[in-house]
Amino acid sequence: MMPSRQTWFQLTGFAALYAFSCVVGRLTIMEGTNLSLVWPAAGVAAVWLWARHGSGRLWLDGTLLVAIAVVVNLATGAPAGTSVTFALANLVQAVIFTKLVARWRPALVSEERGCELVRTSELWILLGAGTLSTVCGAAIGPLGVWLSTGTYSWAATVVWLTRGGASVLVIGAVGLRLLYLHRCRRAGRASAAAHPGAVTGVDHRPPLLLAEYLGVLVCSVVAYWVAFALADALPLAFSLLAVTVWAALRLSTTFVVLHGLAAATVTVVFTVHGIGPFASIGDHTTGVLVAQLFVIMIAVVGLTLALGRDERTALIRELERGKVEAARQAELMSAIVHSMADGVSVIDEDGHVVLRNPAAEELLGGRVSPGDVTTDASYYGVFHLDGTPLVTEDLPHVRALAEDRALEMDVLVRNAGIPQGRLLHVSATVLAHGSDMRSAVLLFHDVTAERRQRDELASFAGVVAHDLLNPLATIEGWTEIAAQTIAEQPPDPVLDTISSSLTRVRRAGNRMRALINDLLAYATAREATLAPVVVDLGRVVADIATARVDAAVATKALIPTFHIGTLPSVEADPVLIRQLLDNIIGNAIKYSIPAVPPRITVECVRDGETVEISVVDNGIGIPPGQHEKIFGDFHRAHNGVDYSGTGLGLAICKRIAERHQGTVVA
């Protein structure tokens, strides 16, 4: 595929620039050798391959580089062998430089990133790649001198290293900036100044900034004219660093690299012609070498300061953007919290109210903590559900911070703001922030209507269940009498049919009685007053296990085996806690695998004042997605005929556990 017109335009431009730089370099041939003291072509070659990286035509670029270098060297009197060696050395140096930069920092040769040089770390990569590639070139180039003269010159090696380092650093930095600005414009970016490291200044007032640019230019011209023309015998060269520092601290990085290129050109040109403070140092070659070391120092100082300033500017802008974004997020979060129907409050360990939304104030009846510092529970009118006052130590945020755990509880709030009372479900979560600061996040949800509806339903279920017992007892009694009467009669097909029907009626009555008993148990679990005493859980579970084994023997069912660990004594309502354990163990036996004897393990883990009892069985398990639903009213995970039930057993267990300030999970 033939290169495009744009590619030919690039190649022509770089070829012309490279040829010109080779000619300029050959004008400074080192006495007694064919090696140039100054070689700007090294920097141009690096920029050439840099700009063309990824084009897929490295062979074409390399061929042009070698051809131009050979032609210029031959035209300026270099032997053919030396010309080819110098050309190959320049090519190897440029290729290694580009490969190292691409490997160490791909963004520097990325078409998308625009060859940006914006960080001091990238400057060190530029220096490192330039140094290593120049060393490789020095290992090849002086061989050409040795081939032509028969003597290896260490001075030639030093010259190659110095001129290559200065050229790559100064011209490479300029090329990077120009490529960056060109690609910014070509990509349609708004402005190079909008990007870190582009044309930016600390002073954002254009008139003063323009005056400062002019001031640096005038001072630079005067300083270099004095140092190199008027007082060239005086050691004033290093005082020129002041102008570079001024430009690097105040003006754009692009201006700094162009200023460095101009300073390097003036320094080298004057020194090569025997003018200036470096021309008087030893012989001519030494003066030119020192001048190029001075150029390297000027470039490093200027770029280090400019890029460091750009990094600080970019960091400050990023911090400002972060502050704006954080403020926006905080404003959004505040709007969300203040628009919530549920109350939210954040209280630190010292009792200071850090945050409170309007809903929290409304749900608490307008009782705002005086001075935004929490006070006694009596001030807010907080009670347990049974009407006993809540002590301050039992307030949700106090308990959560003291126990360092999340907790949930229902409370009754009754004060002057809500004399009729309000039921709130409160969730308290510990929030750690900083090294030693903790706060409690409280979420208040009004459950008054929900609990009233649920309580009314439970009361209705209890009343209905109680009222149904009398007619059910009548049905069961007359069914039993009819069955006995039929049993006393001689065999008859009609009587057999009637007996079968009565059996179905009795089974239906048994199912109805089980449902009524569960409804009564559910209502009792919700409404009965707790009578907590010390209950030996080990004895309760052992008694339940014995009863279950006896029932299996009596019904000729598979006999369950029990493994009961060490169970502690707890303070609980003995009737309700027995019902809770009996329901769970009964479920473990009921939902067993057919023809497999049930094995039930009951164990306990104690964590402080909390007791966790686990009941593990070898049954059919719980279907996926049902682990929370099985605790709902009338919910059955297994609806097959082999597993009868009303769907209230685990709902009763959940209510009993909650009334004991506990939980039950599957």
Quickly name the level 1 CATH class of the largest domain.
Mainly Alpha
Helix content: 55-70%
Radius of gyration: 46 Å
Total DSSP E strands: 11
Biggest sheet record: 6 strands, antiparallel
- Give the mean pLDDT: 80
Structural class by secondary-structure content? alpha+beta
Q: What count of domains describes the coordinates?
A: 5
Major sheet: order of its strands? Answer: 2-1-6-5-4-3
CATH domain fold name of the largest domain: Arp2/3 complex 21 kDa subunit ARPC3
How would you characterize this protein structure?
The protein has 666 residues and is an alpha+beta fold. The protein is built from 18 helices and eleven strands. It folds into five domains: 189 residues, Arp2/3 complex 21 kDa subunit ARPC3, CATH 1.10.1760; 130 residues, no CATH class; 107 residues, 2-Layer Sandwich (Beta-Lactamase); 81 residues, Helix Hairpins (Orthogonal Bundle); 139 residues, 2-Layer Sandwich (Heat Shock Protein 90). The protein is 58% helix and 11% strand. β5 and β6 form a beta hairpin. The radius of gyration is 46 Å and the shape is elongated. 33% of the residues are buried. About 3% of the residues have low confidence. It is found in: Cell membrane; Membrane. It is a multi-pass membrane protein. Keywords: ATP-binding, Kinase, Membrane, Nucleotide-binding, Phosphoprotein, Transferase, Transmembrane, Transmembrane helix, Two-component regulatory system.
